[in-house]
Structures are given as structure tokens and as C-alpha cells.
Amino acid sequence: MSQDPFAVPNPLVLFAVVSLSAAGLVALLAYARLTLRRARGPGPAPGAGWRCVAALVAAVALGVYIWGALHLVMDESAADQACKTAVGPAHAGKVDAYRTSLVPLRFGCHVAGTGTVEGAIPSHVNSVLAIAAILAGAMTLIALFVSAHHKSPDHASTGN
After folding, report:
1. Which of 12, 34, 60, 99 has its CA at 20 to 30 Å from residue 40's CA atom?
2. Average of pLDDT values for 15-24?
3. Total-model pTM
């Protein structure tokens, strides 16, 4: 059983990935709002500000991922047109396969002897996604460090 070299991403898989990502985005925004309240309230929780910013940056990463993944929603004619535009008129008739991926986001148009050219996902999407994910991870680690090394008033008064 060989796979169709011109297959576009499975719409059900794409729908599931985008739906789960959107649910994660909403959860991150709700968490950011909750931690913002904790950071600004009386007796702010240690590291809450960092957790809030980390959640917002992670939400940006998910938003960029969703936006990029929506570029993969296409039928055969849209995929063909995206490839013709990407490879240019000289190679438009020579596209021999599509190369798709959800991680990293990719829709490539393969031309024998030339290689694969990105055909639908804007070039900056994966870079922005990686940077936002790294920043969110770093901010989460900072929040954990601040929370772990914060001495409560009870411990400070007893010398523990």
C-alpha cells in the first residue's frame, strides 16, 4: 500500500489538532488572568507575575501554531495552486509530491532535481513559534525558581 505523494493533510487530524490547540489557548489565557489577580492582590503569590507572563507567551505560541496550521486547510486544487505559486512558472508542471508536517508546520512542494520549496506556511511561523516556546519555558523556570526560593513571613521571623 503506497501513500499518495499528492495527499493533503487529513482534515479530521487537522481539525483535532487545531481544536485541541484552541482549547489549550483558552486555558492558558484563563490561567494568565487568574495568576495576574494573584500577582496584584493582597499578599501576592511568589512568582505569580512570571507565571502570568509565561502563560501569555505560551498562548502566543499556540496562537501562532493555530494560525500556521490553518494554512494547511486546503483541497487538491488549492494545494496545486500554492505549489505553482511557490515554485514559479518554470517548475510549476514539475511538482512530483507534497511534503506536509504538523510539527514543525510544513507544506512543501517537491520538484525532482530541485528540492522542496515551502508552499503554504509563511516562513516566519516556525521561527516565531520556537522563540515563543523557548521564552515561555524560560519564564516558567524563572517562576518556579522564584516560588521555590521565596521565604514566607513565617519562616523569616523564626529564622528557618
Report:
1. 60
2. 97
3. 0.84
